[in-house]
Design goal:
about 200 residues, alpha+beta, Rieske Iron-sulfur Protein, 8-stranded mixed sheet, binds FE2/S2 (inorganic) cluster
């Protein structure tokens, strides 16, 4: 078990605000990960309302919820989808570890994807619960659970934000440090679709 990588404390997002995020995420997941949730993705997105280093909740709780629901947690105000990734997967730490330091154990880390702006032409990219991929409704680009490109016209995987765990155990996303998504050739996750797609290619 690796020690969680932590940095000194920042004030967390108010609990009520975070619960609102969680509620929205849960409703989205309950609707099959698409449905109403897709309405919020029909407009090109850019993070609004949150700036700089933002604590988004207890890192362990977030990871548990994502794994239990088998769905990312959306933070609409930040244009973020929080995902779980496996730093022990072949090549994963070398590819992502430098900027994604919210590591909870050898094989569980958190990462914040910019799911509000498809690298093709900027549409929001909803999560598809049935395929367990992100699928863009505008021109059909698809991304695996790690936001890696799997098909469509997008030039790369989903962009993402640097993140870490602070001294209070909070998962903190640095909205001032947006990172260009991985090249099309990146396929560390090697995840096939796990069910029907939500968007036709
Ligand atoms: S904007 Fe997503 S595929 Fe075109």
């Amino acid at each position: 078990m690796a020690d969680a990588k932590r940095r000194p404390g920042l004030k967390p997002v108010e609990r009520r605000t975070f619960l609102r995020y969680s509620l929205i995420g849960s409703v989205g997941a309950g609707l099959g990960g698409f449905g109403l949730a897709s309405l919020g993705f029909l407009w090109p997105g850019s993070p609004e309302g949150l700036f700089g280093e933002v604590p988004l909740g207890n890192a362990n709780d977030l990871a548990d919820e994502i794994q239990n629901e088998r769905a990312p947690i959306r933070v609409p105000e930040g244009g973020i989808s929080i995902i779980v990734w496996d730093p022990s997967a072949s090549g994963a730490d070398a590819a992502y570890g430098e900027h994604h330091q919210a590591i909870l154990s050898d094989d569980v880390g958190l990462m914040a994807l910019n799911s509000s702006s498809c690298p093709h032409l900027g549409c929001g990219v909803p999560w598809c619960q049935s395929s367990q991929w992100f699928e863009c409704p505008c021109h059909g680009s698809r991304y695996n659970r790690l936001g890696e490109w799997t098909g469509g016209p997008a030039p790369r995987g989903l962009d993402r934000y640097a993140s870490f765990i602070n001294g209070d155990g909070q998962f903190v996303v640095d909205l001032g440090q947006e990172l260009t998504g991985p090249a099309r050739t990146a396929n560390i996750l090697e995840q096939s679709p796990e069910g029907p797609h939500c968007v036709d290619a």
